[in-house]
Amino acid sequence: MRRTNQPAPQSLTAFLPGEDPAGHQVDRGVGRSATGGPHVLQPIGRVESPLVDRDLAPKQGDEGSPYAWLIFEPAVREGLRDLEIGSDAIVLTWLDRARRDVLVVHPRGDPARRQEGVFSTRSPDRPNPIGLHRVEIVSIDGVRIRVRNLEALDGTPILDVKPVLHQGDER
Amino acid sequence: MRRTNQPAPQSLTAFLPGEDPAGHQVDRGVGRSATGGPHVLQPIGRVESPLVDRDLAPKQGDEGSPYAWLIFEPAVREGLRDLEIGSDAIVLTWLDRARRDVLVVHPRGDPARRQEGVFSTRSPDRPNPIGLHRVEIVSIDGVRIRVRNLEALDGTPILDVKPVLHQGDER
Known about the structure:
The structure is a homodimer. Chain A is mainly beta.
């Protein structure tokens, strides 16, 4: 097995999903795999941004987004250690003000455009409202990372950060 | 509000998260927003692929991935209606055989490479194991969509499909 098998730091173990707020066991499972449901997301941080109103926010990150901060949980600090200032990264968020019961939308919220299936659009409204953002890392201060080109609203939960594999490639 | 406000079809409403298997109310919330926790994913389909062994699967989609099928839930059919054969799409999956308690890994599972923070790698092992795949749509048969360049394992839950905004751009 080509895996990293070092034990998780205690703080991370405590941080990972094991109980929901009502005390029910969720998604920890045997061997700490993610197998089995329900699949419960555990935010690793939050967006701190001047953007607070969905209807005023830019539709895409390079359409007038202000600088924003990614504020990570201290428990995931080790995972951040190789991020570099000046590089681009992909940030996945949970668009917590989206609707999950919508399957067709007017692209870019423009009623003049014909409705399209949500899976052909970047609408935040979709069954699993996961935001996909390509940002540039501007500065790093411990678990606080400042970025450009993030259109997510203030308070949006952060789910993951991934590297851009090849400049201009979307894998 | 620039939103699509048409009522959800009954089948989608029934499909969306409302109760976990134990009968607890989860994540439906007032107004059907995704606000509040826990944030529970509702797979919209599954991958059907000859890839069954994580250790033999290619690390990235264009490194020898076979053709695969995306098998969607009938309830989300309307959302798929504008996907086009020959186009590229971004598929998000839940990497259900990953570990969630890992923060540093050897890149590409190679013990000869120094460990890196997971958020600088595409390791499936990470706190929220969401897979990000750029695929090419080869054919469409109702809710079955055949794709190239998908390295996800057979049975992997599908979370979302998004368009590539600009060829070679990763937003």
